[in-house]
Amino acid sequence: MSLVAVVIVLFLVTYVVPQVAHVFAGSKRALPLLTVLMIGMSNFVRSYGWLMLIAIIAAVLTARLALSNALFRQKFDAAWLNLPILGRLARSYNAARFANTLAMLSGAGVPILKALQAAAETLSNQALRADAQDALVLVREGAPLASALAQKKRFPPLLAMFARLGEQTGQLPVMLGRAAKQLSTEVQRRAMQLATLLEPLLIVAMGMVVMLIVLAVLMPIIQLNQLVK
């Protein structure tokens, strides 16, 4: 839907607005300010649109190249986790995958160190993966899993809490599975809330843009009709 709206806006700016400018080019009457601004924007897009496209492609390629560097990627992922809404989603999503993998492997009898190593490799966020590797080192040195996870503040506290309950009751796979389920439910709920919030905002924003363009086209026509009368 957003792609269709962008196409409509580009069509109006690059085709409809120039047609209006051509019609009123010979008129000695001053055009409305909104129309003048839209004509200027249209001329800019028509003249430099290809440069803007090249700049966008170059920015995307540069970002991909930068993210291929392990150190930069880890710093970027760490910064991403600090974002107000998206960061919490990424944190919970990765923690759910980690807990689910760890629950399945430990429940199947895989040694905890090997299970931790495999679970760490499922993390798409490199900062959390580094934390999981650090937790693996702590467990290898004799620390309880819950204690090792609790020291890594980027993991949700819920994960360490369920791990502690699992270690105390001897049901670590079950408790990790419950943690994964609860974290997954939280991710789905927050993602739905975000989508519910963003969709109407996007519709309103695109509607306002289209309305401004239509007004820029109609205002000189209305002005001309008033002069004729």
TrEMBL record:
Ranges that cross the membrane: 49-67, 197-222
Principal location: membrane
Subcellular location as annotated: Cell inner membrane
Signal peptide coordinates: none
Topology in membrane: Multi-pass membrane protein
Gene: epsF_33
InterPro entries, per database record: GspF/PilC, T2SS_GspF_dom, T2SS_GspF_sf
Keyword Zinc part of the UniProt annotation: no
BP terms from Gene Ontology: protein secretion by the type II secretion system
Family stated for the protein in its record: Belongs to the GSP F family.
Any matching Pfam family: T2SSF
Record flagged with keyword Hydrolase: no
Gene3D superfamilies according to UniProt: Type II secretion system (T2SS), domain F (1.20.81.30)
Protein name (database record): Type II secretion system protein F
Domain Type II secretion system protein GspF: 98-220
Species whose genome carries this gene: mine drainage metagenome
Any single GO CC term annotated in Swiss-Prot or TrEMBL for this entry: plasma membrane
Keyword annotations: Cell inner membrane, Cell membrane, Membrane, Transmembrane, Transmembrane helix
